[in-house]
Protein 1
Amino acid sequence: MLFGKRKNKASSLPKTEPQETAEGVVAETAAEELSYDGGITVKEANLHYGDFHALKNISIEIPEHRITAFIGPSGCGKSTFLKCFNRMNDLVAGCKVEGEFTIGNVNIYGNIDVNELRKNVGMVFQKPNPFPMSVYDNIVYGPRTFGIKKRAALDEIVERSLKQAAMWDELKDRLNKSALGLSGGQQQRLCIARALAVDPKIILMDEPTSALDPISTGKIEDLCMELKNDVTVVIVTHNMQQAARISDKTAFFLLGDLIEYGETDQIFDRPKDKKTEEYITGRFG
Amino acid sequence: MKKILMAILSLALACGIGVAAVGCGGSDAIVVCGREASSGTREAFDKVAANAAGDTLDDYSSEQNPDEAAEAGYVSGAQYFSSTGTLATKVAQTEGAIGYISLSSVDESVKALSVEGVAPSEATVLDGTYKIQRPFVFMWNKTVALTPVAQDFLNFLKSKTAQDVVKEEGGVSLTEGEARNDEGAIDYTAPTAAPAGDKKIVVRGSTSMNDLMDALIGKYCELNSSWVKESDFDMSLQGSSTGREAVDKDTTGNVIGMASSAEAEDTPRNYFNVALDAVAVVVNPANEISNITLAQLYDIYTGAITKWSEIK
Amino acid sequence: MNRVKAKEYASKALFAAAAIVCIVAVVAIFVFIVIRSIPALSKIGFFNFVFGDVWNPDRYDEYVTDPLAGRYGILTMIVGSIFSTVGALIIGGILGFFTAVFLARFCGPRVKRVFGAVINLLAGIPSVIYGFFGMAVIIPLFANISPTGDGAGLLVTSLVLGIMILPTVVALTKNGLEAVPQELYEGARALGATHEQAVFKTVVPAAKSSIVAALILGVGRAIGETMAVIMIAGNSPEIPGGLFGSFRTMTANIVLEMGYAGEVQMGALLATGVILLVFIAIINLLFGLVISGGKKNKGGKKLSLGVTMPKWLNFSAIGKVVSWVCAVFVAVFLVLIIGYIVIRGLPHITGDLLFKNYHYGGEPALLPAIVSTLLLIVVSIVIAVPLGIATAIFLNEYTKKGSKFVRIIRSSIDVLSGIPSIVYGLFGMLTFVVWFGGSSSILAGGFTISIMLLPTVIRSTEESLKAVPDSFREGSFALGAGKVRTIFKIVLPSALPGILSAVILAIGRVVSETAPLMYTMGSVLQPMPDGFLGSGATLAVALYALAGEYKYMDEAYATACVLMVLVLILNFFAGFIGKRLGKKFQGENNAVRKTKKQSKQSSED
């Protein structure tokens, strides 16, 4: 309700042009040119949790409309790095990020609207976290946040997002049922649909299938392959087969360092670094 | 089935614990009950209950006992209650209990004793043969002039009409000047128009006078229905002492205080006694005793007598 | 700054302002009693005050008097409070713990629902009624085994206080037991443990910290209780001589003498309040230690509840039996107390008593009291609930986790919830009553009660907010929602059932409270209140006033009946709303618990 008054862009969101969106939300940062379209570029990123140096001098370029997988053993910093892209690390007390993060032409650690960033960079979490409300309300939560109130527009978004997430047929008759009644896999795909509803440019996935059975995992992997036509996907995974199956590029992290980054085929077939080889052949981790 | 068995078993056990408490018979011990120190009833009682040497309980509590472990009060182990209701309930429920409450509160659940052979009644209170008695007092500030409305209400309280209400409420009516500390009950005629000024009247003081004041206000409102509202009265009662305090602190001249024990001779307040009330010494109805002396009361409350058999 | 940011800042400012108002109000009470008691403490001497065993105040003592005529030592009262509280803890703690175990693990859902609802009903019965129940039912029972011929004193006080803390102990323990992940229980069963063994050896130790929390909150309630105690303890300021000796607690001392206290005496009474605060603070400190100790123990160190059983005793099987016995005992007690009120009161409920306006000099009638009660509920809820919730939001959502400042605020709020209500009454009398025209009024009573409710509302709201999994918040933030939207659309709705039950409990407290209202809102039966600035007695106060002179005991019990029905309606209402909300957020509780558990696991790996 506190967000309900921004009517200027109310109906424009579903098929929004980047310029319009930026105009609506980041009015005062004179952001006509701000666009999240494009890849992610990171230069010399460092991250500290208090005294702990969690990410060490990482530079990477993640291409648009591709699936990029982050792999590495637990605690290597890959999830932490992922969360830098939508600044979820801001919520963690004592977390300090240095370096240059650019998405499209936006310096995301500059003077920007974090909410606008998160609208453009969606996220799917390790554990499905649907809100305790109906399927419908879950999906329109994001659009409503950005001021869309017309029922017709919302209906359209729900249908589009659910179709995009390949769930429309499953769920079209249960839109008003609680999202918590869905199975784990359905919940996770609903979360993806929810992220898609605000029309993001990038979707970050933090081990999205680690809590799911193989069939649900398969469905989500298929979904990722579909999605890359529309969005850039960055996925953190423990499952190397998964990375090999779906990703175009793969980055291997170890103890806060980016050890190797390249085309997925190359990483898995001809790793340049010995540590990468050891990891993907299962010698540790 | 097993659960039902379990339930029955535990019920039996639980009841067993309860029944264990109901064992042996009663005892002869006196359970000494009194009121808290701010009570007007207690003040009246303590000033009268005295031993042969003339020492009253009042003296005992304030002077003779300060170094004892017990409070300035009664015998060690005595019980104190904060209202007539709780004290009376206690006496009604406890075979060996003794206590004191306003005569108007006595009902069949407790037994009022004769004191020095005199049963408490209107007649014995009026002629002074029943010793444990106290006045109901109305007080107002000496230095601040009363507001016209408060003055009119006071005139009503002083009137013969008010005395009729006192009788209706079962109090011992006082019309003569000497006992009232004024010139005697006056005639009250309701003013034809509302007196000037603020109409609020604040009533503070003794809870024992709650019923009487209720009836008096009711009558006053009836007589002056053209201009008085019941909500003009702000009545809050927490004991005689609070009534005195409210009168002393009055700066607007609209406080009427009530106390259920006699004002001291050097009182800083204006007052008159509207009625007399007997403080009845009450025991459990099962108690066979029917008469008690002031000296015995003194001994009971100071601990010299601890068993009912010592009185018979 | 764009509009979203402006809104964010404005909301934060608003929440912060609410928090400041709350904290100022709550600190004002604290400062008030401390400052008012310092002159008395320095006059009497702290040592003499705390360790003096003679309480013999002289109401004409003033700070300039030298030497003091009275003696002001509260050692006997301190001992009395400790004894009765420990007694209450033993009785109420054992009964409450085992009853909660029974409710959580040994009975069917229907028994659980009905029994649980009845126990909650206990929380809404005014303490005056407990007092009368103790005098009329328990004391005569005990008189038979008492060497003094009277059953009043320590034992009955402990028992009644034990019963009074039951709702608190049972509710919190039950919640704790139910929050233990089912997997733990299943794991134990899978290893071959019987149901009883799984419950007592696995589930109970896992819920240790909430059980201890329940007991400590119960202790807080017992040590602050007044109106029931002054009817059954005897109130003689001496150290109780055995189970049936007359004794006085600190709170009883305040209530008994507050009305007429002189200067030094008043200071000494307030200082008694300060000592009470110190006690509550110590209890809370213990609470904190236990909680942090519980966390340390997670590593698998042996957890015991302080009860070590010889090996040859089958502790679990005995536990099961004890649970049944305690539950039945509590049930019998419940039936007794409710039956007592109904039998004494129901026959005297008449249409005239309920629905006629009261006029001075007329027969007692309750309509004005019912109206006053409802008005008071409105005022206090309108003030305390938004303020309390906003403060809780500020503390929980806007401040850094583990911030020392917030921790201090939190623990002072906890301490303040232990101030005896009479002290709030005194504070209200000297502030709100004066502000609202110098005489008692519903508004003054409402403000006073609101301050009294704030600590409870803040803390229970905070608990509900904490129970909302962070994954919900993350999900919302990740969709680009700001803090305000996240709070109002995700966090608050999820926490609503918990907040609601806190509000209902608060209403129960408003309905059953007596002491502070007598000084701020009205102490006698009065005609219909003249708006919010008029004075009036609530039902509980009316009950006290009716019973006060022993003239309207029947009407008093009838009032108690009415009050009980009112509380029952409130509880049903709460249950109804809870169910409606539950339907709206279908399966939410399970989800919450699951997610919580999962996030715990994920944080470990």
Note: Confidence is low (pLDDT under 50) at residues 1-31 of chain A.
Protein 2
Amino acid sequence: MSEQNNNQDRRLLEVRDLRVSFFTPAGEVKAVGGISYDLNYDEVMGIVGESGSGKSVEAYSIIGLLQSPGKVIGGSITFEGQDVLAFSKEEMTSFRGSRVAMIFQNPMTCLNPVYTIGNQLVEALKAHDKSISMEGAKKRAMEMLELVGINNVAQRMRQYPHELSGGMRQRVMIAMGLICHPKLLIADEPTTALDVTIQAQILELMKELQKKTHMGIIFITHNLGVVAEICDKVCVMYAGRMVEQGPVNDIFYRPGHPYTVGLLRSMPRVDAESYERLIPIEGTPVDMLNPPEGCPFAPRCEHAMKICLKKMPPYVELGEGHRSACWLRVEEQKNGRPFGPGSAPERQGEDGGSNG
Amino acid sequence: MAKYIIKRVIMAILTILVVACVTFVLMRSVPGSPWNSEKAMTEQQIATLNERYGYDKPLPIQLLTYLKNALQGDLGVSLKMQKDRPVTEIITTMFPLSAKIGVVALVWAVLVGVPLGCLAAYNRGKWVDSLLRVVCTLGISMPGFVIANFLLIGLTGQDSLFGLKAIFDASQGAKAYFMPCVALGLYPMCYVARLTRSSMLDSINQEYIKTARAKGLKTGKIIFKHALRNALIPVITYLGPLVAFTLCGGFVVESVFSIPGLGRYFVQSISNRDYPIIMGTTIFLASFVVVMNLVVDILYRVVDPRIDLTKGGV
């Protein structure tokens, strides 16, 4: 009982059956079709999926940045016990930036080119702390810049974004996001636009800052390498649905959904043999205007069965906090024996085959 | 920067010189002369006048003499309209009235046009946007004299509400300036609103606006601080030369309201072939435009720190 209480105390964010639709002239696009997850303080959750899978839309609805014609049409978002979807416009404005912050993909375009770094940092602070003095705000901004590993802070404060490098700007974005001590940081592909060495530095920085601040992080990416680097748990999204969710090790070593398996297979590996080719996932993503009946991945799935094309599979528990929506796993549980791919580490099996 | 300023000043002087030469040649190649009037003059009288004002010499010599004098600040004297009054004096007495009306017209045009453009962009596709677009298109497509006459008919007369007079009367104070300023500012206002709208649409879709929203800034601050400043470049570009032209007087508005301003006088001087006045006002206007363009370039830099003037600006 006490452990459960403890768990409740550590709960930062609860998303239940969230549904987001875009009402376009061509029809309703169900960008997010009912996803649920929990996030605790101190936890980093990765949301993985290809372009258009709804991962960014899902995050934008938490922070209330959905643009028309996007609309949350169902489900709930509970942040530290408060219903985020019930916030008034003013409450949402003060919620953004102070309790939840967001950093974006392209640091080149995310800072306003016509204001100094200092101006934009101070502004973020003053938006939520009206009483702070200009000097106090500047001092705090400089502390934040130092915290994210920027040197010469007094000079940086007076510089414009175009005078900084990409990695430096992403550091500034992080400093700006964290200046009001948010409890949750949503990072929307924060390293995608950076080169690999800078990527590693930014990830290192985020991990370090998270240890200091105990915030929760939602990390949206399509890079599984990044996920392995930083995340505690992972949500795999496909066509607006969460097809698999679980602790990072389970996802990598015991993937329970053919789509996750496909993602892992299409990822380059350092230990691969030189002749080994990447295996892409065949087919194209679903047309979100006319989603297929049943499992959205079925048309591309090499293990698709009749039922996959007719009915959406239910979630099956595969381990502690690890669930997947795939009929293969349902069959497996029914029959009590492994069925199809995913139950055994897929890669190794293949390697064995080619060697023998 | 010093090199840049020197370069700009030399360019400015050259521009004005070219304008002066072209105007001089064109003006003199138009048939007619300042001495034409209802009262016919004898050959003898015309020859005397030509000799007195130096028009008996060859054209290039006249041009050189004029330029030499102009460089020393002497723009000659009026031949006909205000006989023998120095042109510089005429400009300095007439310009303030035109400028006063022009400044008020432009100030209201910008103060109303820019926020309306922002409003339309923010409510893109909604009824506010559609309404503003109709109004602005009307304002741009209606000629100035139509608007001025509408105002005259609607607001003046014996039993008019505000006691506005159809003929400009400076002793009426602010009342006298009301209609000319409205008429003169309407077109720039609509144009500025449209320009602001289109460049705001571009800037509110930029990523830094998303950042500003994510920071929890209020809508007003996002629009007017973050989006507007990035949208100002086209507006400034348009306003620069317009300031010069408007301050030197709108011919139509000054004619309709009978305002003794520089704009009307300039056009009258052309039909009267009062050569020194044509030259003087043209050089004055050209210099003003050149100066305004320099101001615009400097403002670009103020608005957007990424612009490097020494590399050619925008």
Note: The mean pLDDT of chain B is 88.
